[in-house]
Amino acid sequence: MRAFSFVLMVALHVFGAASVASAEKHASEPAMAAEVKSALEWLSADTETFVVAKGPLVLFPTTENEESTSDYRDMPSFLFTASKEGKLQDILGQSLRGKPALFAIEGSRNFHPLPEPDSDFLQLGMIHFEGCQFLFFDNKLQAEVAEAFQHCLTEAKQQKQIAGKSVAIFHGKKKGDGRQRLLAHPQPNLLVCATDEAYLAEVLKRMAAKTPNARRALPMELPEWKWVDTVAEVWGLRHYARPQPPSDPTSPLGGTSSTDRLHDPAAIGLVLAYNAKSELVVHYLTKANDAAVIASEAWQFPGETSIKITPAVEGVMKIQFPRNCQNPAIVYLLMLSRIGHAIYL
Predict the structure, then answer these.
(1) Which of 29, 126, 250, 314 has the most other CB atoms within 10 Å of its CB?
(2) CA nearest 249: which of 238, 263, 265?
(3) Signal peptide position in this chain (predicted)?
């Protein structure tokens, strides 16, 4: 495999582990929209990362000059808009151009790089993960959503029935590279795009269940929920899986203290909240005794002096990135890697 010294993993070169957390239980469930609650019920119980972006989200601009929703609001919808996987954005845009989504939501797990086909090198670009993203639209757009999905079924080189639902499958441009997008239309106002067939099958089965599932993704007992701000334009959390797969380069639970700045065996998880007119705020939960030192090494990097790191309570470090920070692109890529979506360049 390509040695990490020869691979630039964007944002992870400044990624160290961070702080940790109080194990207090959240007293009550925070206020969440029905779509968000449904997504948590549908996702696999071992989902590690959950991100929500509130609309209106313009993912399919009407003209080349019209800007689509960007910045942190596109975090839970990039599967629909990535151009490498069969030009899915263009196909969906035939019917959904200018039609905003109400919510974009992601659930994901098992983050790991993929090897290049017939090569010892790792693939460039975003590392692979198992998961799916939901796009919820207004009920008034049901006809347009259905039409968009039919376009995808027509254009896809492969179709398949998964858990009783028709699924359009788009493969990566390189044969055998392991990347695919599986698109389903399980409800009139909903599109689901997944990276893994088994994960999608479980989501669709849980959606079809007539009674609530006994185990759901990221239960309210997790300490991260104490710090979640569901009022934010974008919010999310990651609860690190234990035991962590050794192939996940984005988790602080892996690596070694002498060779890897990601190493923090006491890490619990993180919570993010973003508002376009104010700032990005991250709460990092860890049981490490030197949480402040770890957070400083992990989140600060040369050329950026505006990042503010303070303890919220014992075991929780608060990291604030102001809207006018000097290196917004690096901060964005760093945040992507924190939730599992590291990028190799």
Answers:
(1) 250
(2) 263
(3) 1-23
pLDDT digits (tens, 9 = 90+) for 85-111: 447 888 998 999 999 999 999 999 999
Q: How far apart are CA 224 and CA 237, in angstroms?
A: 7
Among 43, 141, 53, which residue's Cα sits nearest to residue 92?
A: 141
Q: Model pTM?
A: 0.87
Enumerate the domain spans of the chain: 4-22+220-344, 34-208
Query: Which tokens in the block code for residue 122?
Result: 């790792």
Residue 292's φ and ψ, nearest 5 degrees, are -65, -40
Burial class of 164 by CB neighbour count within 10 A (0 to 12, 13 to 18, 19+) = exposed
209-256 pLDDT tens trace: 977 777 889 999 999 999 999 999 999 999 998 877 778 889 988 765
As a whole number of angstroms, the distance between CA 174 and CA 80 comes to: 19
Give me the phi and psi of 133, to 5 degrees please.
-125, 140
- Return the residue matching tokens 């039919």: 150
Q: Tell me the three state secondary structure of residue 5.
A: helix
> Which backbone phi and psi does 98 adopt, to 5 degrees?
80, 0
Residues 6 or more apart whose Cβ sits within 8 Å of residue 136: 35, 101, 102, 103, 104, 105, 189, 190
Quote the CA–CA distance of 18 and 298 in Å, as a whole number: 6
- The tokens describing 309, both together, are 């790191």
